[in-house]
């Protein structure tokens, strides 16, 4: 999958309009309908959602199972931030990463700090804009693997909220340094039942990855935020 992303980045050419670059893990690769380049049934219909919702040329730089360290490596060493991309002031990046760090035991402070470091790297080197995404709600891996009831499966990973609270502070610091070139969006409410605070399995059936309806909800939050940042 890395070779595919490197090839797509190398083929990028600036034009007289906006292009979008979505960076992340399986939540980003899922827009392709794939995981590690292989089509998965759980992503059926997602590519049609992407084609309908995104109106600008789109680069999807996501790899299943990646953590923050992988994304940083991909930018620094993997060719996903080419000179042509870095020089394009119309390019709008979206960064959604950290879910797998939390699932592997990363603390909110560690994970939020790693996301901040990636955002700082992009903004220091690229002329475009960056939208930092809050980590989406998801259920605990142990609950997904051994759920005895839907209610168990719906319980949320408790480290998401404190991580996102730290991210808000980090984005405030980035705004002080980079001004209107950086934004923040939290699309998590689209996946939580407001009446009980549990995960919506109709949009995230496996407790971690959106289905087509989930990507529709995610896009309805993400696309306007990208457009707002583009015009800021």
Automatic annotation (TrEMBL):
Pfam families named among the record's database cross-references: Lipase_GDSL_2
Protein name: SGNH hydrolase-type esterase domain-containing protein
Signal peptide feature range: none
Domain SGNH hydrolase-type esterase: 22-217
């Amino acid at each position: 999958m890395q070779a595919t992303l490197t090839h797509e980045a190398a083929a990028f050419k600036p034009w007289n309009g906006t292009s979008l670059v979505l960076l992340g893990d399986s939540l980003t690769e899922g827009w392709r309908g794939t995981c590690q380049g292989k089509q998965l049934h759980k992503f059926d219909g997602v590519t049609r959602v992407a084609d309908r919702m995104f109106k600008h040329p789109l680069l999807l730089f996501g790899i299943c199972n990646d953590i923050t360290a992988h994304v940083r490596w991909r930018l620094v060493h993997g060719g996903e931030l080419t000179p042509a991309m870095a020089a394009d002031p119309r390019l709008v990046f979206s960064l959604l990463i950290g879910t797998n760090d939390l699932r592997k035991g990363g603390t909110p402070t560690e994970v939020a700090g790693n996301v901040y470091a990636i955002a700082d790297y992009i903004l220091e080197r690229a002329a475009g804009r960056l939208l930092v995404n809050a980590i989406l709600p998801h259920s605990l891996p142990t609950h997904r693997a051994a759920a005895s009831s839907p209610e168990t499966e719906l319980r949320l990973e408790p480290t998401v909220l404190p991580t996102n609270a730290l991210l808000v502070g980090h984005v405030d610091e980035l705004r002080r340094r980079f001004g209107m070139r950086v934004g923040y969006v939290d699309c998590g409410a689209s996946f939580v039942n407001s009446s009980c605070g549990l995960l919506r399995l109709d949009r995230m059936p496996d407790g971690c990855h959106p289905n087509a309806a989930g990507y529709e909800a995610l896009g309805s939050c993400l696309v306007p935020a990208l457009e707002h940042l583009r015009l800021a």
